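cron nightly-structures :: item 1 of 1
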Amino acid sequence: MQKCDLSIKVPEGAFVNLIEVYMPPVRNEMANKSVNKTVTIPRWLNEAAENANITFHKYFNTH
């Protein structure tokens, strides 16, 4: 195992404080962010949806 030099130069009157962070909730939040994409659908599907007063965004947008 290699040794690591962890010496930190701190100005006089200052101090070093260790902060521990539990990352899984942060990673999960980042993974659930929405991404904008352009979707191409057939014309007949678009016309059928318009005739039925269906808007696709409410089916794609889950938040």
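cron nightly-structures :: done
The chain has a mean pLDDT of 84.
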